[in-house]
Amino acid sequence: MFKRSFHSKDRASKAVKPSKRSFSDRQKLKLQQNLDSPPVGTSLTSPIITLVVGQEPRIFAAHEDVLSLSPFFTAALKGQFYESSAKRVALPDEDPQIFSCILEYLYKGDYYPRLLFNKRRASFELEDAQDLQNFGGRGSVESTVDIPGAGGALLKDTVIYCAADKYGLDELKRLALRKQGLQSGITVDVILRSARFAYENTPDSDSKLRAHYLALIIRSRKTFKRSGTMQMEMEIGGSKLFFDLFVAMCNHVDDIVDIGNNRSPKTI
């Protein structure tokens, strides 16, 4: 599962722990090559599409073939968002700073901070991470973003995961989730606000991002239990997060009981 530790009352040392599954040298090399190389099968001579992003519009430009790596944009270039005469796509509900990361990924296979393989440690780490607590490559670097209407800072990788889900970019979802696991020093209020955002912007069928937040809260339950922020969020309610958390904690207790019963049969 996901081990968590906290340095202080309202600070998490790890947002999400990466999977314990080990990678072969060939898999490590392949992943790093994917992160360092532009998308395969695209033509940088295809038409340029103008993208008007956000409520206070920012202008982006991208090659049509690159955008078409996303099923969303393949459809958008033929649909209501597309002004064919001007080769323009309007995305008024998208946040420009998140969309910039999406474009960076489409062109380069990653977004800042990049996921890098440390040969000395034989593990992945974030580019420019400040590993002040010697977490073996984990650290804090551009971990949060401010999205209008969110009520405060959100975990950047969570917002990118939700955008990737919208744009049909499954590999980007996996990348964002892995990178979020390498961030540290995240406060309880940011975690809970980001969890709410995740629930509001992913389908009920999502089994990755939501599960990470549930596992995080359960593993760090002592810190969340004494947090005034957690109490306030639960009293406000209004999110499926808290019912899912209740079910997950019941399952956690059941697992403990089953282990105890296997050792010396008893019930509670």
Low-confidence stretches: 1-24
Distance from first to last alpha carbon: 25 Å
Radius of gyration: 21 Å
* Class by alpha and beta content: alpha+beta
The neighbouring-strand order within the major sheet is 4-3-6-5
What coarse outline follows from CA principal-axis ratios?
Answer: globular
Count of alpha/pi helices = 11
* Element pattern in H and E: EEHEEHHEEHEEEEHHEHHHHH
Number of strands: 11
Strand content: 5-15%
Largest sheet: 4 strands, mixed
Q: Which structural traits does this protein have?
A:
globular; single chain; four-stranded mixed β-sheet; alpha+beta; 268 residues; 11 helices
Q: What this model shows, in words?
A:
- The protein is of the alpha+beta class.
- Helices cover 44% and strands 15% of the residues.
- The chain has helices spanning 25-36, 64-67, 71-76, 96-108, 156-167, 170-180, 188-200, 209-219, 221-225, 228-236, 241-263, and strands at residues 6-8, 11-12, 48-53, 58-63, 82-83, 88-91, 115-118, 123-126, 144-146, 153-155, 186-187.
- Strands 4-3-6-5 form a four-stranded mixed beta sheet. A three-stranded antiparallel beta sheet has the order 1-2-11. A two-stranded antiparallel sheet has the order 7-8.
- A hairpin with a 2-residue loop joins strand 1 (6-8) and strand 2 (11-12).
- Helix 5 packs antiparallel against helix 6 (170-180) and helix 8 (209-219) crosses helix 11.
- The longest helix is centred in the C-terminal third of the chain and has 23 residues, at 241-263.
- The radius of gyration is 21 Å and the shape is globular.
